[in-house]
Amino acid sequence: MQNMLTIISNALCRITGRNVLLIDLSEYVNLTSPAAPALATTQRQPPKPPPVSTRASVAQLVSSQNDALDSPGTRVVVSRSFADFTPQATFDIKKCDMHRLEDGPPLKAELTRDQGLQYYRTMQTVRRMELKADQLYKQKIIRGFCHLYDGQEACAAGIEAAITPSDHLITAYRAHGYTFTRGVSIKEILAELTGRKGGVAKGKGGSMHMYAPHFYGGNGIVGAQVPLGAGIALACLYQGNNQICVTLYGDGAANQGQIFESFNMAALWKLPCIFICENNKYGMGTSVERASASTDYYKRGDYIPGIRVDGMDVLCVREATKFAADHCRSGKGPIIMELQTYRYHGHSMSDPGVSYRTREEIQEVRSKSDPISLLKERMLTNNMASVEEFKEIDIEIRKQVEDAAQFATSDPEPPLEELCNHIFSNSPPLEVRGTHPWAKLKSIS
Hints:
By secondary structure, the chain is α/β, with parallel strands linked by helices. It has helices spanning 2-16, 38-43, 61-68, 75-79, 113-138, 153-162, 176-181, 186-193, 225-239, 257-269, 288-291, 314-329, 359-369, 371-381, 387-410, and strands at 88-92, 97-99, 108-112, 168-170, 245-250, 273-279, 282-283, 286-287, 306-310, 335-340.
């Protein structure tokens, strides 16, 4: 009997290429033959079970086999079940309102299973990261200005899905989501919020001033990033690199004079710039109807074509941004996009967000238009993923955010002598308003 078990074990090992499930069968089979000689036992010891499970009793057999599925050798079996999922589906999306355009973005969007899971992961990560920032702010670990992005995740995820990493993006002060989609880790973002050395700007930028390759921040002055974005687009045109610049601003900044100056230059020079107004219905605590004589922000360019997009649907945003990017790359000049979206938090952490709108209004948007729930429901309805799979992703993201928060609260603050570092990109001038920038500083606090 022992020889027979040995043969079976060896055969299973050859077939699977792994021995993770080969356990001491004598615990589960009643052997009637005499015990094998001691020499044979030492020559053919059954492999030790994985550390995740002890497999000490029959009662643990089922759970131990489930634990063993985490090993690479058994994922082949599990991955076959993925064939039961729909690999790709086509969805109807909301038609965009258009200005000075004969044709607009498509009315259908294709989504692969991998794309859907990636978009879900991105939006859920931004959501969890912002909720953690809310918690850290209320604990007074994050101080100063802090503008959260939860509710608007489809905008950042959809735009990034439609452009290339070499394209450029600049936004206002509600920048955490775009900082993440542009490639900065959760750890670096949260550490920047808490003012630590490991932050993306070494702890000296804070919530509104985070940067990455081809990402120009985070800008604290209302509307000031728009002419900067036009300048980046001018550089793309000048260099002839077929790149574009996505320039974002909010409905609260839409009445700034410098925006219309930027529109004028971009149209004159046919700059490859997508001007995007993230219309989240409120500029600070003022509704768009009370602040703007015309709330058709996509028409504000007049002589510049524009489209109005459902900013709560990641597929709508993706398809509209692809359309706009093709428009710019083809040499037709700038285009304006208005993303109709909604923020769940107040304007900033100092704004409770319920003095100018009702809790019922916020809850209604959450229940009917939440971008994460919308994508999840689409994928579940079309058998593109399982509830368990989404739960696993959620658990993984929660752990990543918790680990990042732990780092952000334990990493040291930058020392005082670094205060004047990284101000200039090259050698500093001899004098800056009479103060030498490299003078040794002393703390008087």
